[in-house]
Amino acid sequence: MGAQVLDGRAASAAIKAELAERVAVLAERGITPGLGTVLVGDDPASHSYVGGKHRDCAEVGISSIRRDLPADISQEELERVLDELNADPACTGYIVQLPLPGHIDTNAVLERVDPDKDADGLHPTNLGRLVLNVSEPMTSPLPCTPNGVLELLRRHDVDLAGQHVLVVGRGVTVGRPMGLLLTRKEINATVTLAHTGTRNLDELLAQADVVVAAAGRPHMITADSLKEGVVLLDVGVSRVEDPGTGRKTLTGDIDPAAERKASWMSPNPGGVGPMTRAMLLLNVVESAERQAGLR
Ligand SMILES: Nc1nc2c(c(=O)[nH]1)N[C@@H](CN(C=O)c1ccc(C(=O)N[C@@H](CCC(=O)O)C(=O)O)cc1)CN2
């Protein structure tokens, strides 16, 4: 028997319906939440993700503010756009689509975002609150992908308390905050954070009850290394060219054939990706609720 599906599309549809109700409550008070996106350059995948974010906004009644900027924009000009969004009352929260071109200092950009408008939860103040475990439940935005992973598991009644979770990937958008969230008291997982420099990855995989794969290495995790009954979450979004057709297809970090070992597995596409988008909307709605004194 194969793994049960951690269905991100269904879960995100349910979350969007719930958020549309919360947006309607805000509308009764004359408030329309607004999401801003800042996109630099012509990367097709980034354009497609940003387009998806604006479609989601339209679905739940959040207004959209879009700033598409040339790849050769200077740091100064880019930061000026952020200052405008920081000052714009129609913009409840916004994101800077990552990755940014190499000549841009990404950390300086993330720091320029007003922490109260940080829809991605990636501003140092908000990441710091997560590290400090300032309040439970959190009153600041959480990074969308790690929060999406937890929400996906919650909505399928997969309990992580006491489980050994192996997070593969140390990036700031997924791996690092994922470890912090998993070790909070209400989740209570035991976490190992591995990465592409980890030497004994196969040993760690063989011990893991749950694997969150976010290293960006296509199909780096295969069935052979995994324990029977493992829960698998695939965050990888590499685009790999099919040698036959020349077409690029979305390829995760986990070989789909690993499903035979798993009790639960997130499909890719259709798993963590839609949850990332849903958690972004949640951050915007919660931010609007905070600004309205409803939280
Ligand atoms: N500022 C940010 N930049 C980036 C983030 C982020 O959270 N904040 N994460 C990724 C990209 N990303 C969101 O921006 C993202 C990736 C994938 C999906 C998604 O829904 N994927 C679909 C498949 C889509 C496809 O076929 O291309 C799925 O998994 O079903 C949503 C958001 C890097 N940048």
From TrEMBL:
Pfam families: THF_DHG_CYH, THF_DHG_CYH_C
Catalytic reaction(s) noted: (6R)-5,10-methenyltetrahydrofolate + H2O = (6R)-10-formyltetrahydrofolate + H(+); (6R)-5,10-methylene-5,6,7,8-tetrahydrofolate + NADP(+) = (6R)-5,10-methenyltetrahydrofolate + NADPH
Transcription regulation keyword on record: no
Keyword Hydrolase part of the UniProt annotation: yes
Transmembrane spans: none
Keyword vocabulary terms for this entry: Amino-acid biosynthesis, Histidine biosynthesis, Hydrolase, Methionine biosynthesis, Multifunctional enzyme, NADP, One-carbon metabolism, Oxidoreductase, Purine biosynthesis
Residues at which NADP(+) binds: G169, R170, G171, V237
InterPro entries: Aminoacid_DH-like_N_sf, NAD(P)-bd_dom_sf, THF_DH/CycHdrlase, THF_DH/CycHdrlase_cat_dom, THF_DH/CycHdrlase_NAD-bd_dom
Domain Tetrahydrofolate dehydrogenase/cyclohydrolase NAD(P)-binding: 143-291
Domain of life per record: Bacteria
EC number, as in UniProt: 1.5.1.5, 3.5.4.9
Family note: Belongs to the tetrahydrofolate dehydrogenase/cyclohydrolase family.
Function of the molecule: Catalyzes the oxidation of 5,10-methylenetetrahydrofolate to 5,10-methenyltetrahydrofolate and then the hydrolysis of 5,10-methenyltetrahydrofolate to 10-formyltetrahydrofolate.
Assembly, per entry: Homodimer.
Name this protein carries in UniProt: Bifunctional protein FolD
Native organism: Kocuria aegyptia
